[in-house]
Design brief:
Radius of gyration: 19 Å
Strand order of the largest sheet: 2-3-1-4-5
Structural class: alpha/beta
CATH superfamily: P-loop containing nucleotide triphosphate hydrolases
CATH architecture: 3-Layer(aba) Sandwich
Distance between the termini: 62 Å
Strand content: 5-15%
Helix content: 40-55%
Order of helices and strands: EHEHEHEHHHHEHHHHH
Shape: globular
CATH class: Alpha Beta
């Protein structure tokens, strides 16, 4: 049987916006399939990284990687870096996955940047720092911002416009609403992806409910100095405003981060 899509469900981001939760919840559904873990070629069974790490391997490699052992199952590729693909790359994605269901979780750009900085600081130091991260780190802090790609990942409005040109039915989810009611968000995702809920037996629904309510991949909440937060707030402000204009969504997470900042 030939498959219409290499990947039937694409999670394109955002990084630090519950994509691990998305994969964990969807992969528990009996109608989905995850590819084998070929680390470091792939990142666990979640991220195929075809268009950034593995494009040189060619489309047939991607088709074979994503092909389920049972043709009735929907294959998953949840790679947050896909949000940053160019128009040409998204066109290529559309050719490989013409009927894929695409999911983009939007998070307040400031809160996402803070979370990404924390993640990259832990990766750089192998553990949570004893003291707060501050602008006194100088070039080290700016390099961490660059490695976290806070401007690229925070450019939600521009990323969304590129993807909607090829996938106009792309599902947009609000991170804060997902955190508040993950099961309701998960049910919306299942509907978008054409995955059954009502027809599942009680034990399977209980497993999916547990997965949907489980928190995944939390980074240590160590302190960033007020100077760091002011810098990030200023850097992310235009991207935050553009996102609200593009989607009509408002975000409170970044405001909460700035409360009490001198």
């Amino acid at each position: 049987m030939s498959r219409e899509n290499a990947a039937d469900i694409l999670g394109i981001g955002a990084q630090r916006a519950m994509t691990s939760w998305l994969h964990q919840a969807l992969s528990a559904h009996p109608g989905t399939w995850t590819f084998p873990d070929f680390h470091p070629v792939t990142s666990s069974t979640k991220e195929a990284h075809y268009w950034d790490w593995n494009h040189k391997r060619g489309p047939d490699w991607y088709r074979v990687l994503m092909r389920p052992l049972d043709e009735r199952l929907k294959s998953l590729d949840v790679t947050p870096e896909y949000a940053l693909l160019t128009d040409r790359q998204i066109e290529e994605c559309k050719a490989l996955n013409p009927a894929a269901k695409v999911i983009y979780i939007l998070r307040d750009p400031l809160a996402r940047a803070v979370s990404a900085i924390r993640m990259h600081t832990v990766w750089a130091s192998k553990h949570a720092p004893a003291d707060e991260v501050s602008l006194d780190m100088g070039q080290t802090f700016l390099e961490r911002c660059d490695r976290a790609r806070i401007w690229d990942h925070g450019a939600f409005a521009a990323n969304l416009r590129r993807w909607r040109r090829r996938y106009p039915d792309l599902l947009v989810l609000h991170y804060e609403e997902l955190r508040a009611d993950p099961l309701a968000g998960f049910r919306k995702i299942l509907t978008h992806c054409g995955l059954d809920w009502q027809g599942l037996d009680e034990a399977t629904r209980a497993t999916l409910t547990d997965r949907a309510r489980r928190h995944v991949w939390a980074t240590p909440r160590y302190a960033l100095s007020d100077d760091c937060l002011h810098f990030l707030a200023g850097a992310m402000w235009p991207l935050r405003e553009a996102l609200t204009r593009e989607t009509g969504l408002t975000f409170e997470e970044g405001d909460a981060l700035m409360e009490g900042v001198a």
